[in-house]
């Protein structure tokens, strides 16, 4: 039997599965076919929850004596958009000028294809592994992420699974392979401020209470002063007002209500709880200010509603894991990657509750775009980096 040692072959097979969230599209079956000959036991639990589509996931483990490394990722992809805009069809895995085209090429079927090739090459050359390797693959990363990684982790832990380290294969490199390893993420929180006023005629403001004036006062308090100047490992905390809604079609009516929605990305100066408290304080203080309020004496009447669950900030401090990955990038490409906590959230935010986690994958430039593609040379290089990492990490673990 031929082992899946060729990352481009692995990736082509995966791209040809149209696995747009929440559809499995044959992607997990394809993985199962690749992993079984490598000695992995494969399970494919389906998770459901009211109001969300059922999602199939995959957990594969190859057991050995020694530490346990988990590779995490997703086979679902975002929609292709206008298919006619693609130079090559999005699910055909066509190659042109040294690049393979297809939805998921870099985000992140490519990362999975390389990791499997790395394990296959390692087994082919060494005959075994000094520990256990598992793949935790969800079909629900690009969607609501409810029936995916969180449930898969809980499911695996309930079966007695434990991991010593995890690597997430998301595309972490902004421009070239070896640019960046992600060792943490900022936290994220969203909320809405609803200001209640009193409707009235725009010509008689003394008889009304314009909520837009109150909302301006409150929004200003969220934007100034800055929350912090950043820390050793993180960029400054940033709040963006993402929407302001009044919903008033008339020009001569003072509206009754005004709403602002915001998202804040916070660093390790804060926890979700302390940043929430800071925002509450700022709003309570600002509500008493007279600026913009045209003679009103009562504080701004507002409610603050937090939306969704917060994502917590985290920083991985496992030197052995980080050094093994830096060393592997250096050994294969001769460059030292930057360690970063920038960017949006990923499933690493869930894994960090179970074991130290880092993220390293392909170049993300074309992710979610028309003509998503990956250089075949990058697939080969990433496979070599992963293989080097597997060897190094288990070698150190065995000593
Ligand atoms: Zn992704």
From TrEMBL:
Pathway: Amino-acid biosynthesis; L-lysine biosynthesis via DAP pathway; LL-2,6-diaminopimelate from (S)-tetrahydrodipicolinate (succinylase route): step 3/3
Cofactor(s) needed by this chain: Zn(2+); Co(2+)
PROSITE patterns: ARGE_DAPE_CPG2_1, ARGE_DAPE_CPG2_2
Segments forming domain Peptidase M20 dimerisation: 183-289
Coiled coil ranges: none
UniProt entry keywords in alphabetical sequence: Amino-acid biosynthesis, Cobalt, Diaminopimelate biosynthesis, Hydrolase, Lysine biosynthesis, Metal-binding, Zinc
Cofactor note: Binds 2 Zn(2+) or Co(2+) ions per subunit.
Binding-site positions, Zn(2+) 2: 107, 142, 368
Record field: catalytic activity: N-succinyl-(2S,6S)-2,6-diaminopimelate + H2O = (2S,6S)-2,6-diaminopimelate + succinate
Residues the record marks as active site: 76, 141 (proton acceptor)
EC number, UniProt record: 3.5.1.18
GO molecular function, one term: succinyl-diaminopimelate desuccinylase activity
Residues that coordinate or bind Zn(2+) 1: 74, 107, 170
Protein purpose: Catalyzes the hydrolysis of N-succinyl-L,L-diaminopimelic acid (SDAP), forming succinate and LL-2,6-diaminopimelate (DAP), an intermediate involved in the bacterial biosynthesis of lysine and meso-diaminopimelic acid, an essential component of bacterial cell walls.
Quaternary structure, from the entry: Homodimer.
Family named by the database record: Belongs to the peptidase M20A family. DapE subfamily.
Name of the protein: Succinyl-diaminopimelate desuccinylase
Originating organism: Mesorhizobium ventifaucium
């Amino acid at each position: 039997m031929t082992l899946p040692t060729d990352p481009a072959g692995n990736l082509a097979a995966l791209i040809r599965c149209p696995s747009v969230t929440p559809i499995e599209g044959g992607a997990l079956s394809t993985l199962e076919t690749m992993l079984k000959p490598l000695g992995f036991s494969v399970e494919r639990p389906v998770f459901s929850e009211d109001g969300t589509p059922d999602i199939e996931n995959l957990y594969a483990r190859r057991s050995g004596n020694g530490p346990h490394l988990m590779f995490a990722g997703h086979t679902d992809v975002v929609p292709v958009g206008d298919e006619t805009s693609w130079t090559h069809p999005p699910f055909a895995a066509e190659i042109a000028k040294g690049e393979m085209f297809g939805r998921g090429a870099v985000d992140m079927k490519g990362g999975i294809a390389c990791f499997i090739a790395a394990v296959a090459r390692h087994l082919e050359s060494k005959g075994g592994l000094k520990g256990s390797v598992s793949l935790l693959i969800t079909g629900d990363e690009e969607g609501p992420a409810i029936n995916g990684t969180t449930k898969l982790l809980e499911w695996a832990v309930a079966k007695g699974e434990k991991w010593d380290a995890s690597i997430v294969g998301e595309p972490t490199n902004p421009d070239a392979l070896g640019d960046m390893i992600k060792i943490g993420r900022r936290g994220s929180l969203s909320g809405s401020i609803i200001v209640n006023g009193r409707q009235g005629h725009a010509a008689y403001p003394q008889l009304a209470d314009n909520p837009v004036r109150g909302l301006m006062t409150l929004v200003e308090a969220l934007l100034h002063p800055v929350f912090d100047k950043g820390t050793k490992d993180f960029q400054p905390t940033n709040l963006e007002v993402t929407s302001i809604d009044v919903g008033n079609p008339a020009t001569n009516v003072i509206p009754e209500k005004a709403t602002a929605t915001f998202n804040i990305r916070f660093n390790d100066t804060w926890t979700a709880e302390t940043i929430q408290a800071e925002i509450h304080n700022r709003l309570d203080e600002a509500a008493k200010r007279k600026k913009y309020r045209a003679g009103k004496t009562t504080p701004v009447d507002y409610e603050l509603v937090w939306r969704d669950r917060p994502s917590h900030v985290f920083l991985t401090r496992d030197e052995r894991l980080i050094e093994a990955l830096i060393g592997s990038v250096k050994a294969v490409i001769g460059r030292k990657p930057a360690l970063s906590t920038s960017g949006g959230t990923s499933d690493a935010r869930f894994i960090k509750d179970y074991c130290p986690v880092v993220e390293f994958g392909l170049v993300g430039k074309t992710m979610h775009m028309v003509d998503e593609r990956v250089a075949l040379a990058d697939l080969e290089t990433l496979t070599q980096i992963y293989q080097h990492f597997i060897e190094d990490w288990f070698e150190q673990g065995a000593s």
